[in-house]
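Response to reviewer comment R2.3. The reviewers asked that we include at least one raw input/output pair. We reproduce the pair for histidine kinase here without editing.
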Amino acid sequence: MWKDSMLQILIAFFPVFIFMVWYSRPEKTRYVPAFLTIVCGVAICLSFQFALVSNDAVIFDFRHVPFVVGTLYGGIPGAILLIIIYLAMCLNDLSQQADIILFAAFVMIYFPILFYRIRAYKTSGRAKKRRIVYFLCSLLALFQVAQFFDSGSDWSASELPVHIVASITFYLFFLLATTLCVYFVELGFERIQLQIQLYDVSNKYRGEVRRLQQFIDNTPLIVVFCDAEGRVTHINDMAQRLVSPLGNSDIINRYFSFFAKRMEMEAETNPVEHVLQDEDRYTEVVRARGRAYYTVTCPIKQLHLGGMDGVLFIGHDITEIQQLKDEVNRMDRLSLVGQMAASITHEIRNPMAVIRGFVQLLNERSPDDQQSYFRIVIDELDRANAIINDFLSLAQNRIVEKEASNLNELMNELLPLLWADANLRGQIIDMRLGEEMDLLHMNSKEMKQLVLNLARNGMEAMNDKGTLRLETLNMANTIQLRVTDNGVGIAPEKLEKLFEPFYTTKTNGTGLGLALCLSIVERHNGKIHVESEPGRGTSFIVSFCKPGRNCW
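Raw output as returned:
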């Protein structure tokens, strides 16, 4: 009797044991419903085959344990297949009409409830799953107890309590066995779910580590990690380039002082040792290989213990920023000097005008043989006054009044004056004006000054048979003015400084003419470009943005 009972228990737990051995990898998850359906179907058939009837006429088998497990975890197709197996096995045991009617009533009540519970089981929590299992087990136990009492209609009153106790005992064993099977199946699912979560977390961790490593290696900062003893444990690509030709293996496990020495770092103290001693953030501007670096050295804290696990050294190249800062300071000083110079030169014009007036008066009263001397003085005073005028025009950042004008009309107005200058030099003016020229917002006085300066520079660069070509072009977004000469040209090394104030390539030049031209062009939302080839000539190309267009 006990051997047969143990056999029934082993058959009931057979699907779960096989499932826990088989379900070892996440890749098998998709096959779980089919696997449980098969092993539970085999267990149902074995339970019917080795069913045991006790002395109290109790049918002792656990056929319903694999049936409940298989229908809950095998899905709808698996549940239908197990129901067919279950019905086929049960119909063989039905011999009386009362048993058939009772079984038919059970089928009509239980199976609709079963399909409803199967749909809700997958998305339920652990507590609700237990309630569903208890409910289904109770229905199955009631059906088996009803069969048991239906078959024992000739029992005496003294036998009834014994049969009731036997039925309750069977129900408890059945409920316990089903609960354990469901628990072990859920345990298998949780184990695989933990594997999946661990795999996902590991992948995310490796991905974050890889991205962090790529960020550290490719960042334009010097990054050096040191351990708690001050030895280098990692350097990024930027730091490795600074200690070239040494490689990564030559620096790792060396003290930070060795890295600083190879980097030629000029620092007052060793920042890593400073942090190791004080356990505080340390910042310093150091120089290394002719460049300036803003460095931050800070401790790497341990996550849980709160101690120091190492030191992080970060350096940011601020050479360009430092140079820009110095340039801004220099420009501020130059601006102050320029303002003072503009104020002084403005005041100089007044006594110069008085001097010129008295020189003219003396010239009229002097003998003829001395008038040439006074003429030289007056010419030099006029030349000095012209320099002052150009300097004041360059120094003043004034707002000019502009109006819509046609560049071709302005060029035609200047043509007689340009021809007059060219005739004095024995040169030719070649004017090529574009057709249907759009209007520009410009100040005519400044624009004439721009054209005259560029034209006279071109004339001065040519010999007495040179040709000066002036062109206007109507482009899509801009209007271009081209002034081209066939003179001596400009050397490439001089082109970069061409528009700097007081820089000149002429023997008697002041270096203010082109600087003034650049100032006028910028006030008219334009750009100026120079193309020159020594011995063949120079072209000044001025581009003005048309109104309402975004050119630059």
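The chain has four domains: 2-196, 220-317, 323-395, 403-545. The two ends are 100 Å apart (CA to CA). Further pairs are available on request from the corresponding author.
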